[in-house]
Amino acid sequence: MKLKHIITVFALFISPLALVSCGDGDKEDSASSDTEDVDSASASVKSHVEIGQEMAEIMSEMMTGMVSVKDVESAEAFAAKVPERKAKMKDLLKAAKALPAPSDEDKAAVNKIMDEAQEKAGPSMMEAMMGMSENPEAEAIGKVMENAMQDEEMDKIGYELEAMYKIEGSDEQEIIVE
Question: Global pTM?
Answer without folding.
Answer: 0.71
